[in-house]
Write the structure tokens for this entry.
Amino acid sequence: MTALENTSPAARGRRRWRRLNASMLVGGALVALVVLAALVSFVWTPHDAVHVDAAHRLAPALSDGYLLGTDKFGRDVASQLLVGARTTLFVGIVAVGVAALVGTPLGVLAGMAGGWLSEIVMRANDLLFAFPALLLAIMLGAVFGASTLTAMIAIGVATIPAFARVARGQTLGVMHTEYVLAARAAGRSRLAIALRHVLPNIASILIVQASVSFAIAILAEAALSFLGFGTPPPTPSWGRMLQESQELLFSTPRLAFLPGLAIALAVLGFNLFGDGLRDWLDPKLREHR
Amino acid sequence: MGLYLLVRAAVLVVSTAVASVVVFAVMAVLPGDPAEVALGVNATPEAVAAKRAEFGTDRPLVTQFLDWVSGLPTGDFGVSYVTSDHIGPQIVDRLGVTLWLVLFGMLTALVVAVPLGTAAAVRHRSVGGLLLSGLSQVGVAVPAFLAGILLVFLFAVTLRVLPSGGYTPLGEDPGAWFQQLLLPSLSLGLVQGAVLSRYVRSAVLDVMREDYIRTARAKGLGLYRALWRHGARNAAIPVVTVLGLQLATLLIGAVVVERVFTLPGLGSLLLDGVANRDLLLVQGTVMVLVVAVLAVNFLVDVLYAVLDPRLRGAR
């Protein structure tokens, strides 16, 4: 930045908008599409997503009023995809929410306290890393029965280390800044420093983490539903749609491709959005990645 | 180096011990009594008590835990409540299939990621480089089981050149064994290769900016040759870390891919165990997978120190 450059907040804001990058725009559009599908499904679907139309089983696309055809039970594929978006987002929001709400305070605590407390938190984190979401969900499913709740908790708990690690790393950096030193010299409590100075300064990178974690949560939910450990029937879910269509791959591959495409686009959207957001927040990184 | 390894090994042992407590505790909170489940609703109290004594579930939880955990190092995972079979041999039997799958998956990932990532880095300003980066983004977004389904559609349904599932042991028919492992390994490896290629690209980009590469180029070495001779080891450090983390992902991904291709591996054993409510089997299989993940992380730490001597002094 040159000395002559306009540094007013408005000018800075305009430059930020100009820096909006392709990853962020494409990712944002895909995410918006999934969110829109989920919202629309609350008020309108072409048909009842769980209604079984036995007379029109495996109807091809654009026939009998079915835009994308029907599955082996005669349920409307388009409606299932719309409601499936809702399931995906719901699981993602709860799982990432749990991870962020538990992982962030742990990471900030470890970063601010240092010493043995930090060591304990990070070692516990490492241990949690050994329990991937899928394994946790299968274990919880075996004990409590498979449900959306066990899937969400398992994915959330397995995502805690990601947030804790990022929060700790960022906190360590912020703790050496002059404004934190000044706040400490002024006698502010640790909690006040954490809430007023640390959290606002690490929030942006945590949002990036949330976007990337969301993509991973979508993959995990799809895998769990595919294995029968996610959302139980009849609630539509993309992963289970794939699983139910696998045996029909030889005759009706469309039934596998559509939910597959939905999963891939949603994951791509959140990944791209997270990547773009990171570049947008820190242009120095752009060249690096 | 010695101290570093000692600390890492101690962390591995403590983590394994804590993990065994966690796995046992989660399975122990299960509502219901395995003895009652095994005998059905019409069993007499005496029969249930006898069954409990047979299973050993009438003992205190701590005793049950110590009994279970002390058998693990020797491969004694106990006897299934459902089938009355020893669990250890079943796990060993299935582990082989999963390990082959993971090994081939890893090889596929490396074969895909190293050239793709290097090319994307070298051409990072050109359209080709952007396309390669875009390709890896799409690859990252495809879950392994979806890749499996797409590969089955392409190679088994459309081209009819490879089987869509099943498993023949290596000893019986090596050709059929390889053919049946090919698509599952590709499903796992291609996706992981896409993820890995992004780290390879980033690592190669970093190395390309180093002075020693510029010096090597000034001496007259071509870019690829300079990268290979001077950059490979430096670029390998971050890639090896990710590779290690991915090995754990591959192991868990194998659970799902085995289901797609009906492979009799550890994942299928785990899922069958859940379906049959064979909890001791689930407990044992989960423990093996968790220990495998921990062991892989330990090996990554060791490899890390071998590749970068600077890290040996650090924690």
